[in-house]
TrEMBL record:
Ranges occupied by WD repeats: 373-414, 446-487, 488-529, 530-571, 572-613, 614-646
This protein's name: Transcription initiation factor TFIID subunit 5
Residues in TFIID subunit TAF5 NTD2 domain copies: 112-239
UniProt keyword Ribosomal protein present: no
Superkingdom, natural source: Eukaryota
Keywords: Nucleus, Repeat, Transcription, Transcription regulation, WD repeat
Organism: Drosophila ananassae (Fruit fly)
Gene name per UniProt: Dana\GF11078
SMART domains assigned: WD40
Region named Disordered: 72-93, 287-336
Lineage start: Eukaryota, Metazoa, Ecdysozoa, Arthropoda, Hexapoda
GO annotation, cellular component aspect: transcription factor TFIID complex
Amino acid sequence: MSLEMSNINGGNGTQQPQDKRELLCLLKLLKKYQLKSTEELLCQEANVSTADLTSISDSDVQQVLSSALRLGDGDQEREHSQHPPHESKQSAVTEANAAEALAKFIGDEGFDAQQYEQAYEELRAFVEDSLDIYKHELSMVLYPILVQIYFKMLASGLRDKAKSFIEKYKCDLDGYYTEGLFNLLLLSKPEELLENDLVAAMEQDKFVIRMSRDSHSLFKRHIQDRRQEVVADIVSKYLHFDTYEGMARNKLQCVATAGSHIGEAKRQDNKMRVYYGLLKEVDFQTLTTPAPAPEEEDDDPDAPDRPKKKKPKKDPLLSKKSKSDPNAPSIDRIPLPELKDSDKLIKLKALREAGKRLALSKDQLPSAVFYTVLNSHQGVTCAEISDDSTLLACGFGDSSVRIWSLTPAKLRALKEADALRELDKESADISARMLDDRSGETTRSFLGHTGPVYRCAFAPEMNLLLSCSEDTTIRLWSLLTWSCVVTYRGHVYPVWDVRFAPHGYYFVSCSYDKTARLWATDSNQALRVFVGHLSDVDCVQFHPNSNYVATGSSDRTVRLWDNLTGQSVRLMTGHKGSVSSLAFSACGRYLASGSVDHNIIVWDLSSGSLVTTLLRHTSTVSTITFSRDGTILAAAGLDNNLTLWDFHKVTEDYISNHITVSNHQDENDEDVYLLRTFPSKNSPFVNLHFTRRNLLMCVGLFKS
């Protein structure tokens, strides 16, 4: 951005108070959008200090902008009256484009609202009078056609007629469409259609309806026999029928996958193969056995005859060979960072700890510990526990991030450079020696964001922390120097979520700008931009093999993206509200998603099909996690309840075909898979985390 400045101080070299106020408002705006070089140049040219900005508030900026826009409109009108038409050609083109876009909704010049309403009334009667076996599938066409007729009425300027049309027929639709219809009723001008997310979604992608061939034939015959040209025109432009052979679906089957802004997923959306298996882990036996060998050979030639010292290290846990998974991607499918010795030791420690893991089942439920954040006047916006369960990070509404140690060990910083040079780099405990014991503290804070922090994420190596904020940036913090290392810029709106890859190096973010982005820690540019959602992307999660990323959106869909190609390989519909949380199963085949609609849905990534819907919560499901052995699914939300589900039984029943989309929990025998519910006193849950030994750790914010 560049600014041209001519005689800012006026002809007499003095600034008027009003001019200076406007100038300071402009500087405040430049500072807000972090245009530092332009801000410095303007301060230098106008001889203004940045300290003067403290007297300017956001409301002052907004007021000056509003008056400038009004003045601009007045100047434009005067220009239009004084100058020939060709000088206002640009505004005329803009108006022509808007008129052309609105004309697309109307379809023809002789638009007759009464004709459309009569056609919809006949369609509604046809659906109502059809046989019960076909009625539920046929009723799926009512919502998109109702909405398109509303768009046409509003585009024609018939606002009152359009509103009464929606009010008259909205009771025929399922309850999960109420929110969308309510938002549509807020539209008051034809021009607002061009800026609405739902309108844009239906313009970009046809509304998809899965329907049996028999139901589709009945629908087509009705349109042709009744000569409903107006309905036929809407169907051809805005609806896509994904037909299949076989019996028509019942009410439960239709509702299970309905609710998104684009209808249901097409079958071809889930045709690509997904390598959901886990990568083969490093052979830890090669890491542990060579270490003592040189000492024994140097000291005693009989060392090979004395295996006693090696026995503890050659335990079954380490010598167990990991089987090659036919569904796993090749190890070199995407470039993964090479493991350093320190990384291998961390993994080895994790593996030894996992050997002491408690096996969970319906008869052996996990113990749970609940950390409650008290007196947080800034408001806790997120919480995250490190993989080794030693650190807790919380983000706050005042743009700060705070770290606590959950163990007696204090948070230490690196020693000074001179002290580090004196250390023996070959020492086995070099990592501990690098830290200064005198700097140990129980809690530390990070400051740098300029808006609420919405998510924190620890690196697998435990030396870095990511945070994302309303200020559109992502920051990488060092847990050794306790400072910001990199600021990543790319999103243009608030960033809602950020997650590290299980193998480190990569991380993924998602934003209000309707995109998710894949990054690497050593690059300030995004490696992939995942585009396809029709509303803001609210949550994101890495697959355990780091090859895929799952996203949940306010368009009520869940998508799976391939990090190698950047393509969407799974599209899953079924939620009736924004998707708020995601979690992959330990085996990598299943994905669980929680939503504002209070439901938890389990998906099979091998086919993209819905496994089951778990109903128990009475408010938004804000966090989900799987136990380390994959047998228990834990979920919690804003209803102050923690639920534990028997995921082992869910997968058993699914694989043996005891549950299908048509019988994914008969309306609802909710205790089939529910093991236990734990209520908190008055603390909504912010985060859930299973330790390596399967202890469940919860974090919540006390609401007084």
